[in-house]
Amino acid sequence: MRHQFVEINVNSIKMNVLKEGTGPPLLFVHGFPLDHKMWQAQTEYFKKDFTVLAPDLRGFGHSEVTYGTVTMEQHAEDLNTLLNQLNFAEPIIFCGLSMGGYIAWEFWKKFPERLRAFILCDTRPGSDSEEGINNRLKMVDLVLKHGSKSIASSMVPNLISESSQRDQPEIAKSLIETIESTDREGIAASQRGMAERKDYTHMMAEIQVPTLVIVGSEDQLTPPDVMKSIYAQIPFATYLEIPNAGHMAPMEAPCAVNQGIEDFLNSC
């Protein structure tokens, strides 16, 4: 199946973005350390009614790498510039998973006028604990010394549920291949950026756009209780829990996720 990619100059880097379909802009922002491919089931489904945009963030996929630290704010600014370069003036629907959610908070804070609706998948608004920061920096050291392959297989049990590992082995294979192909400096830069991200926990009530909160019932990294707290605080929020799915609910249960997103967008 042939996909339409464009390469855009964005804030001193070349950014690769999947752009397909026509209609209102629907932006899919991937998790760490992945790329646009995690959204394949969503972009295929929604391109009939929307202009779907699925970029490879700075340092991931086929986008250029920045050494050092790439903050969540930098990623948000990249997305804003990308939308400007593609001449999207109308407000967008922003769908982010995990790190994509961390970027969503920054995008909302800096560019609220650009948002029509939020879809937040398997993410959290809080900053890292001291232990969390140390674990991120340990991964930075590991991946810089031993390469992306050193972390790929060990990440899978945290990313997908036990049932997905057992019944859908192709998902684990795809995730491992993506992680192994990701530039070690790109992984390190965004991992450092996540370690120093801001805490948005107490700002959720300020989000004034319709918001869909999606979580896999077996998510180990951002469990349902975390996502329920987001849902409880955002004034115009809808909650959707996906049975038997883990952190990568859009890949593990695409039909249920797509139906939930479609129902939400029809109600907006």
Automatic annotation (TrEMBL):
InterPro entries: AB_hydrolase_1, AB_hydrolase_fold, AB_hydrolase_sf, Epox_hydrolase-like. Coiled coil: none annotated. This is 3-oxoadipate enol-lactonase 2. The keyword Hydrolase applies. The keyword Hydrolase applies. It is an enzyme of class 3 (hydrolase). GO terms for molecular function: 3-oxoadipate enol-lactonase activity. SUPFAM superfamilies: alpha/beta-Hydrolases (SSF53474). Gene3D superfamilies: alpha/beta hydrolase. Keywords: Hydrolase. Its EC number is 3.1.1.24. Residues 24-254 form the AB hydrolase-1 domain.
